[in-house]
């Protein structure tokens, strides 16, 4: 019994070591992707109601901003996310507890021109005015 447990733990350790070494490598023959070529803009519909379910009223709008930033980070792969003031106004339009059920946003991945920037790219999130954001697909926007 003890030998089997020991064997299992060493198997896990060796598997995790293999995964950590192959994670950063590119397969042979594939060129390294350039961050500069990754400048793109897309329009998304974010379902805020499901993301804020169970959040107390006095924390809904601040949490909504955090959820928008988390969505942009996941969608664009950048940790530096900047929110447009108009989007902030749209979230806070009906007060701290009256966040819209859905928001249509344009997320643009842009070059960071600052010299001492940690990352080459950042995401900029803007509100898009639509009558009803329900059911709209994700669209790539040509800028």
UniProtKB/TrEMBL annotation:
One of its GO terms (cellular component) is cytosolic large ribosomal subunit. It comes from Ophiocordyceps sinensis. It comes from the Eukaryota. Keywords: Ribonucleoprotein, Ribosomal protein. Pfam families: Ribosomal_L31e (PF01198). This is 60S ribosomal protein L31. One of its GO terms (molecular function) is structural constituent of ribosome. GO terms for biological process: cytoplasmic translation. Residues 1-34 are annotated as: Disordered. InterPro entries: Ribosomal_eL31, Ribosomal_eL31_dom_sf.
